[in-house]
Amino acid sequence: MARVKRGVTAHAKHKKVMKAAKGFMGSRKNTIRIAKQAVEKADQYAYRDRKVRKRNFRSLWIQRINAAVREHGLTYGRFIDGLSKAGIELDRKVMSDMAIHEPEAFAKLVDQSKANLSYLKDTTPNAFESAVR
Fold this sequence. Notes:
The chain is mainly alpha-helical. Helices cover 74% and strands 0% of the residues. Helix 2 (32-70) packs across helix 4 (92-101). The protein starts with 6 loop residues before the first helix and ends with a helix. The relative contact order is 0.08.
């Protein structure tokens, strides 16, 4: 049986790791053992933070919607409740963009939401609601 020399394969593997470790500091960029660990950890962070980025954006959209809705005398929770009762299904990304770039259209959305909130029609505002207005 012929002898198999593995230098080419090992070199290719090392090259792949070193390319991924480009830009790292100290021995993390040029020592294969440490670079391999650093690249592995970087991949774990990248995987985790792809999920976290989605959370952060949703949070940002909610904050923007809340700020825009409060100008019309509602809170975010009540606004969303009114929209669901009205049967309007818009995602938060679109509503956030509307609140910034198309305030007139967003105001109509808020009006539709208010119209479907029966508990706002019957009662007098409490201390919190009067402070918001």
